[in-house]
């Protein structure tokens, strides 16, 4: 009987064809029963999740909480600050319910590098209608050191020594992130030898009790020119190292009748003095 009534009533039939039973419910109550046009609209589409998938959920969607957006900040550190960590006061501009600027204290851990990102939760832009605030992401940029180079957790340094210092060995002062430190150059050090200074590198990020090393590359400087006296002494050293008797410059004339080993050491010392300008 109800179907016949619907089919015989053009207006109800139109509602039935478009909206089914939901349309009949709205039509049966009469337009005068709705004080607000949106009430009729919500009645017709109750449980249908909006019109045509367009996400129109009624007045409730307009009151839904919206989370705040994340904020990004670029922080520049010097080499040592990145190695050992630092605490910085930074001022950020963001959307807040009570203002737009805020200063926060940021603790940067030891071992960060350029490109590292630190996340500070709930320090981003404020949410709307009770939504949660976003997060603050701090992007690190590190100023390069003119002397020390970084390779992950290791620090690289290059030193130059004279060829006599490489032959005889010596102790030199080397710059590190901990300050100047003594480094022993062993006798007979070859060009481009790498010496390891253990635990003088960068702390491992989030594991500050672990550190990398400082690697020192030793470059041996060979003089391009020699004085006549330097040349004679070096030739004599060459002869002694080969077990030969000097012909042009007799060691016994300078050092008496010392043994061969004593002559060699004395000659080395003499060469070192001449080469160092003493």
Relevant terms:
HSP40/DNAj peptide-binding domain; single chain; alpha+beta; 29% strand; rod-shaped; zinc; three-stranded mixed beta sheet; 4 domains; 9 helices; four-stranded mixed beta sheet; 278 residues
Question: If you had to describe this structure to a student in words, what would you say it looks like?
Answer:
There is one protein chain. The protein has helices at 2-8, 10-19, 21-29, 37-44, 79-84, 163-168, 228-241, 251-255, 260-276, and strands at residues 71-77, 86-93, 101-108, 117-120, 136-142, 149-151, 154-162, 170-176, 179-185, 193-197, 203-204, 207-211, 214-221. It is an alpha+beta fold. The protein has a 4-stranded mixed β-sheet with strand order 6-7-13-10. A 3-stranded mixed β-sheet has the order 1-5-4. The chain has a two-stranded antiparallel ribbon with strand order 2-3. Strand 11 (203-204) and strand 12 (207-211) form a beta hairpin. Helix 1 (2-8) crosses helix 2 and helix 2 (10-19) packs across helix 3 (21-29). The radius of gyration is 42 Å and the shape is rod-shaped.
Radius of gyration: 42 Å
- CATH class identity of the largest domain: Mainly Beta
Indicate the low-confidence ranges by residue numbers. Answer: 29-34
Q: What is the average of the pLDDT values?
A: 78
CATH architecture of the largest domain: Sandwich
CATH T-level fold name of the largest domain = HSP40/DNAj peptide-binding domain
Q: Secondary-structure element order, as H and E?
A: HHHHEHEEEEEEHEEEEEEHHH
CATH superfamily of the largest domain: Urease metallochaperone UreE, N-terminal domain
The number of helical segments is 9
Report the sheet with the most strands, covering strand number, pairing sense and barrel closure: 4 strands, mixed
Q: How many structural domains in the coordinates?
A: 4
Estimated structural class: alpha+beta
């Amino acid at each position: 009987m109800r179907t016949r009534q619907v089919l015989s009533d053009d207006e109800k039939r139109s509602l039935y064809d478009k909206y089914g039973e939901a349309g009949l419910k709205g039509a049966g109550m009469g337009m005068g029963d709705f004080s607000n046009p949106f009430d009729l609209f919500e009645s017709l589409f109750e449980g249908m999740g909006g019109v045509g998938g367009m996400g129109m959920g009624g007045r409730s969607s307009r009151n839904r909480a919206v989370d705040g957006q994340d904020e990004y900040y670029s922080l520049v550190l010097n080499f040592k600050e990145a190695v050992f960590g630092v605490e910085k006061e930074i001022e950020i501009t963001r959307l807040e319910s009570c203002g737009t600027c805020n200063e926060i204290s940021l603790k940067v851990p030891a071992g960060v590098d350029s490109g590292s990102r630190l996340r500070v939760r709930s320090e981003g832009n404020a949410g709307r209608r009770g939504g949660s605030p976003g997060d603050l992401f701090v992007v690190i940029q590190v100023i390069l050191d003119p002397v020390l180079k970084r390779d992950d957790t290791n620090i690289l340094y290059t030193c130059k020594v004279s060829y006599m210092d490489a032959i005889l060995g010596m102790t030199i002062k080397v710059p590190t992130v901990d300050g100047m430190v003594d480094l022993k150059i062993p006798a007979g050090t070859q060009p481009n030898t790498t010496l390891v200074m253990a635990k003088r590198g960068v702390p491992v990020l989030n594991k500050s009790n672990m550190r990398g090393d400082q690697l020192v590359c030793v470059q041996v400087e060979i003089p391009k020119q020699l004085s006549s006296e330097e040349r004679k002494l070096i030739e004599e050293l060459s002869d002694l190292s080969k077990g030969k008797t000097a012909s042009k410059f007799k060691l016994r004339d300078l050092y008496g009748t010392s043994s061969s080993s004593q002559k060699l050491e004395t000659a080395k010392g003499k060469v070192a003095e001449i080469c160092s300008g003493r």
